[in-house]
């Protein structure tokens, strides 16, 4: 695929990484130790330059209302686990293409 990535062990680390450098897209796990994906997303959205950065929820929660909760928190899309490779690549392509200049 040719993309560079960083991994955060939890929401605090995701927030710290986002504060140090700009990312074109964030895949956000919802269930993490300490700060969860909802809170991490809300905080990242307040950082300079992250208002329009695509944030995609990746979660095992596939219950009614989970997708809406993610979108209300400021996420742009939602992937339910298990995520297959084609679905993941299609979602990444979709959001990186949306951000690319015409």
Q: Which regions contain 5 or more consecutive residues with pLDDT less than 50? A: none
How widely separated are the two ends?
21 Å
Average pLDDT, all residues: 90
Estimated structural class: alpha/beta
The CATH topology corresponds to: Rossmann fold
Give a verbal description of the structure.
- This protein has 102 residues and is an alpha/beta fold.
- The chain has a single domain (11-96), classed as Response regulator (Rossmann fold).
- Helix content is 40%, strand content 13%.
- It has helices at 11-20, 37-45, 66-72, 85-99; strands spanning 26-29, 55-59, 77-80.
- Strands 1-2-3 form a 3-stranded parallel sheet, with helices on both faces.
- α1 (11-20) runs parallel beside α2.
- The longest helix is centred in the C-terminal third of the chain and has 15 residues, at 85-99.
- The two termini are 21 Å apart.
- The model has no long low-confidence stretch (mean pLDDT 90).
Structure summarized in a few sentences:
This protein has 102 residues and is an alpha/beta fold. The protein is built from four helices and three strands, in the order αβαβαβα.
């Amino acid at each position: 695929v040719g993309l560079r990535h960083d991994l955060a062990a939890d929401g605090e680390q995701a927030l710290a990484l986002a504060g140090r450098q700009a990312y074109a897209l964030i895949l956000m796990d919802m269930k993490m130790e300490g700060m969860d994906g909802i809170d991490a997303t809300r905080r990242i959205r307040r950082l300079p330059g992250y208002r329009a950065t695509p944030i995609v929820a990746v979660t095992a929660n596939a219950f009614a209302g989970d997708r809406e909760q993610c979108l209300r928190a400021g996420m742009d899309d939602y992937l339910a686990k298990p995520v297959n490779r084609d679905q993941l690549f299609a979602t990444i392509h979709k959001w990186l293409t949306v951000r690319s200049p015409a």
